[in-house]
Every structure is written in C-alpha cells, then in structure tokens.
Design a protein that fits this description.
By secondary structure, the chain is of the alpha/beta class. Helices cover 37% and strands 18% of the residues. Helix 2 crosses helix 6 and helix 4 runs parallel beside helix 5. The model has no long low-confidence stretch (mean pLDDT 96).
Length: 532
C-alpha cells in the first residue's frame, strides 16, 4: 500500500494537522509527491490513551506471547519485500546493498529478542526466603523481578531508517518488555516509516494484540516531539540523534511534573589511539582501515572514528599524509539531508578557524546535484586539544581530526581530557601491552566499548554489547541501546514481600513453572524451591 501521509493512531489513519512536509531525495534534492501531516496535540493524546489502554493488557502477557509478536513483526517486515528497500533508498540515498543488510539486522534483532523472551531469565528473578527463626527479628520472604514500565515514546534516527527507527532496537526492546510504543517518525524518511507501520499492524492483528500497542506520529517540527515527551501517560523515551536534540528532550522530560527517563544516544567522536610500533609494523593496513571506517556511510554512523591520537615521529607524519591522500582520493558519499549537510559544514568551519588547526584536505563545500560534503582531514596539536574542549565537537560526516602529540605523556594527558564517547580504540603490537594497559585504564572511564586493533564501525546485536557511554555520548551511561540488555531500560524492579504463592508472578512461584534461572538465597538455580 503506498504512503498516505497520515499519522497512524492505534491502527487508524489520521490527518488532522494543517502543517505538512515531504520527504526529499538526497541524491538530487527532489521533493516527494506525498504530503505528510504533522501530528496534532489531539492525535498525540489519542495515541497515548490507546497505549495506556493497551498496556493494561500487555503488562500481563506471557513472555512467549510477546516473543510470538516480535517474530510476526520480523516476518511482516520481510514481506514488504523490494518496496521497503526502494522507498528507503529514495528517501535516504543509503544504497540498496546497505539497506538490504540493515533490514537483515532489523529482523535479526527482533528474533534475537524473541529468543531472549523465550529463555525468560531477563526478568532477573531473585528470591530470599523467610528466616522465621532469625534473631533478634525474623526475616520476611522477599521476591523481586523486573516488570514493564508502561507506554514508551521512540524517536527514529535519520541515519538508520530500519535498525534505529520504527521497528528498530528501541521499539523492539520496549515491546519485549511488554510496553506499548509510540514512534515519532523521522521527517527524513516518512514513507519508509509508514511502510513499517503497515507491517506492524499486520503483526498486531495476527497476534491479536490491542491496536494501541503501536502508533506512528509524523512531524518535522520540534513541537511534535516535545508534545509527545510531555504527555503524562508516557513513561520513558528512547532517542538516537544529535546532542542538541537529545538534550532538548531530556530537559523537557525533566521539567515534567512527573519526570521520566530519557535514553538518548547522541553521538561520539570515537577516539582512536595508534601507538608507535603499530605504525612501524602495518602503516598501510592501518591507513586503509581508518579511511574505510571513517567514510563508511559517508561518515554518518554514530561509531565512525573522528579523532586519532598519535605521537610525533617521521612515521606518524607519513601516516597522516597517507590517510590524507586516501581520504582525498575516495569519492564522497551522499548525505542524508540538507540539515546534515549544513550541520557538517558549520562544524568543520568552526573547527578550521580555531588556532593550531590545519586543514589537510576537504573542508570546502562544493555545489553538488545532491547533498554531499568532501572527505575532510584536519590536524591539531596535543596541547591545543588539551586546552580547547570544542575540538571534541562531533563532525557528523567523513571527517578525521589528527591530534599530533609531542610525547607519550602528552598523549595520555589529552586522553584524560576526553568527554564521554561510545567507543575508544587502541592499535598496538604485543610488545606494547605494558604501555597500552594504562591507556585502556584511562579510556575505560570515558567510553562504553573498548576495542583492541580494530575499528568501531559495526555494532553486534549480542548479549555482551554495550552501545552507550558517559555524557555527552548518552544521557544514561548505565544502559545500552543495542544488545539484549537494552530491554532493562523499559523495565523496573518490584519486590513482593510475604506474598501468597498463588498471587505471585510465575517467575517467582515456588515451583518455577517457567524453568528460568533465578537467584535463590544467594545462589543461581533453575530448581523449584521444594527441591532445595
């Protein structure tokens, strides 16, 4: 079914808003034919009420039933076929190959969370049985587990129209917890968002879920997003985007009469440290890997490496020259939209005009048929980086800033000045382990993921993944937006004291009917209580 331009409130199309917008093809800046309607306050209110009503049912659904729904969503997304790929390619310019891979990641993470639910231990059931003979006072029976928060607002990302959008990681982890989701679609790919909505509603109908378990709100204004976050029935927010946008939502949520958590992932410069022996042993491999990672997706990944630290030497200077030539010789990719293009130009201009910053290649906007910006390499000194925190500004595009330090001590001092990031990488040889250890110790406090001899682009959807980091990378460094533990963002613990077994959730019953792993009196076990 072609895009209608409507908002979708609990399965019903709604076009009450008078303000409209279109998607724009980034390859040739052509506006789309469909007018999409900004959601009104009344439409947002209806979506929130429908989500609240749905939650009264879904909060009690079994994990198996939630898993079945996730698998159905994955199937329906795949059923969209080529139409999904061609629509998203027209709206984002990301390319058929990239989008095909991203679709597989999106359906894969839906099924991975379904497997998490079927295993069941994600509720973190803990039982401390009563000790009636304890002196001077008896200990009560206390049992604890995680339960869903309630309706969640999810803000789609511009750069991942599948994996971090309508049916992406935030929605998947919220649904897995039993939380209804209201998605604020990204204005850069509204038709793609509507296709996902159609697939989700087919899954809702097949699974016999309440239709309020999902709504899609469109809008290209800040006001739409703010109204969603301000609605009193919303219990949490998932966001992937810019620091400015994420912080605005965080501040809005904090000012509510009832503040709510905002899980915002807001970007990163992903520092890379290259030690001397690595430069001596494999300079060509390092240069190729760095350039490929920095330009992947036209530099529009949250994990593209943006700042590279090296110590002054003939080898490091030769390496910078090599990377500069490779960046200059590589064709610049298509940018997502006019806002990304202008934001990148502004950020590079701001950095270039700072003292002690050299422009080695790129950095000059050129007229182009589509949204584009040349691959850019900048260079500064360790002393300048230490003195000016603005040199840590993210350049959302294919931009590398080399920080050339005069000594190893200066490099370590520069690392200590880093703000929060998603990742940090060290390239070294086995003979550098004694030196690399203290560097990792310093970087551990700055990031959510540490890499050894690799590059940060590519984020696996696995249990051990940590896609987050200290502010300003995220607003919630104790959580991740990728991987199975992302579900915990949309759950909260509840303790049951001296509760009759018949009133307890299955996860906490004596017989352990779910067969899940639990902590019972300080030990992990799947055994029923009467067998201990």
């Amino acid at each position: 079914m072609p895009a209608s331009g409507a908002n979708w409130i609990a399965g019903n199309a709604s076009v009450e808003g008078g303000e409209t917008f279109t998607s724009v093809n980034p390859r040739h800046k052509t506006a789309g034919d469909v007018q999409f309607h900004n959601a009104t306050s009344d439409e947002i209110h209806r979506a929130a009420n429908a989500a609240r009503d749905a939650f009264l049912e879904t909060r009690l659904y079994s994990a198996a039933r939630l898993a079945e729904f996730l698998n159905m969503v994955a199937h329906e997304v795949e059923t969209l076929g080529d139409e999904l790929i061609t629509t998203a390619e027209w709206e984002t310019g990301l390319g058929v190959s990239r989008l095909t891979g991203e679709r597989a990641r999106t359906t894969g993470q839906l099924r991975a969370f379904a497997a998490l639910l079927r295993e069941g231990s994600y509720v973190e059931a803990i039982i401390d049985r009563a000790q009636l003979e304890r002196q001077p006072a008896p200990r009560p029976d206390i049992r604890r587990m995680l339960v869903p928060l309630g309706p969640v607002a999810v803000f789609s990302a511009s750069n991942f129209p599948f994996a971090f959008a309508v049916a992406g990681g935030d929605s998947t982890s919220a649904w897995s917890a039993g939380c209804p989701v209201i998605v604020k679609g990204h204005p850069g790919h509204p038709a793609t968002s509507e296709l996902f909505a159609q697939a989700i509603y087919r899954a809702i109908e097949a699974a016999e879920f309440p239709k309020g378990y999902f709504s899609l709100l469109q809008g290209n204004s800040i006001e739409v997003g703010q109204m969603v976050v301000q609605h009193p029935l919303i219990e949490a927010v998932g966001f992937t985007g810019s620091l400015r946008g994420g912080r605005a939502l965080f501040d809005t949520a904090s000012r509510r009469p009832k503040p709510i958590p905002v899980y915002a992932e807001m970007g990163s410069v992903n520092p890379v440290v290259i030690l001397q022996r690595a430069l001596l042993s494999r300079p060509d491999t390092l240069a190729d890997g760095l350039v490929n990672s920095a330009t992947l997706g036209a530099g529009q990944f949250c994990t593209n490496p943006g700042v590279v630290f090296v110590v002054e030497s003939p080898e490091s200077r030769a390496f910078i020259v090599d990377v500069t030539e490779k960046m200059a010789g590589k064709e610049a990719g298509v940018l997502l939209n006019a806002q990304v293009e202008q934001g990148l130009q502004n950020a590079v201009n701001h950095t270039v005009h700072k003292p002690m910053v050299k422009l080695l290649t790129g950095g000059h906007f050129e007229k182009n048929a589509g949204y584009c910006y040349p691959n850019t390499v900048l260079q500064t000194t360790g002393a300048a980086f230490i003195a000016d925190t603005e040199l840590q500004q993210e350049h959302f595009g294919a931009v590398i800033l080399f920080v050339l330090c005069q000594s190893q001590d200066e490099l370590v001092q520069a690392l200590e000045c880093l703000e929060g990031n998603l990742t940090a990488t060290v390239h070294a040889e086995s003979d550098d382990l004694e030196l690399a250890g203290p560097i990792f110790d310093r970087l551990r406090d700055k990031v959510g993921r540490l890499l050894w001899n690799g590059f940060p682009t590519g984020v696996e959807v696995v249990y051990a993944q940590q896609h987050g980091g200290p502010y300003p990378a995220t607003t919630a460094p104790a959580t991740t937006s990728v991987g199975m533990t992302a579900i915990k963002r949309f759950m909260r613990p509840v303790a049951f004291q001296n509760m009759p077994d018949s009133l307890l959730p299955d996860a906490l019953k004596d017989s352990n009917p779910l067969g899940i792993l639990r902590i019972v009196d300080n030990f992990y076990t799947r055994d029923p209580l009467n067998q201990r």
